[in-house]
Amino acid sequence: MQSVFAYPPETLEYLPEDYFVPLDLAALFPDQPEAPLEIDLGSGDGTFLVESARRNPEHRFLGVERLKGRVRKTTRKAARLGLTNLRLMRIDSPYFVRHLLPPGSVRVLHFMFPDPWPKRKHAGNRLFQPAFLDAVAIALCPGGEMRISTDNLPYFEQMREVFSVHPVLTEEPGWNPGPDYPQTDFERYFRGQGLPIYRALLRRPPAGLPLPF
Question: What does the buried/exposed string (b/e) look like for 2-38 if buried means 16 or more CB atoms within 10 Å of the residue's CB?
């Protein structure tokens, strides 16, 4: 029996005509051109992204995932729910943040359970580096947030070393999203194993303060 979707899944995966210019977000979300934008980097199977979009129809959600199968799985989930405020892009997160996000366009950037590259010789492959955080600061709107979650304490400690000295983004201590916050598939697994989750919320200052880069 063929599946029937409330919204065609192929319309939810966005393929820009030009990968060398910032996205036209109004064209990407024509029904909500001015709605707050939330980005889910490394959206995986879409569990967190789809549930967030379902609970917050007044926001736009854009998931970034480099694996084709995961993108297709997420678009099918979203299509079954008839979500029109969600899009997916299949692209590497570093390039996406640095080159495709318009400056000051993002209300919330979710950095959920990134690959920790636990071996010391691979630590340089970790996405969370000073240059990446600079790009995040540029992409966030004044007052915008970056929300971080990980189960890997060494990676979290390395992140804190980076953002504790960042010239723009500041941490809001004690951030805890609460039990009703949507969970990724990784978080469900880690919680099931009784493992702790480490979190941080970084914020760009309000309007009127220029960026130093």
Answer: eeebeeebeebbbeeeeeeeebebeebbeebeebbbb
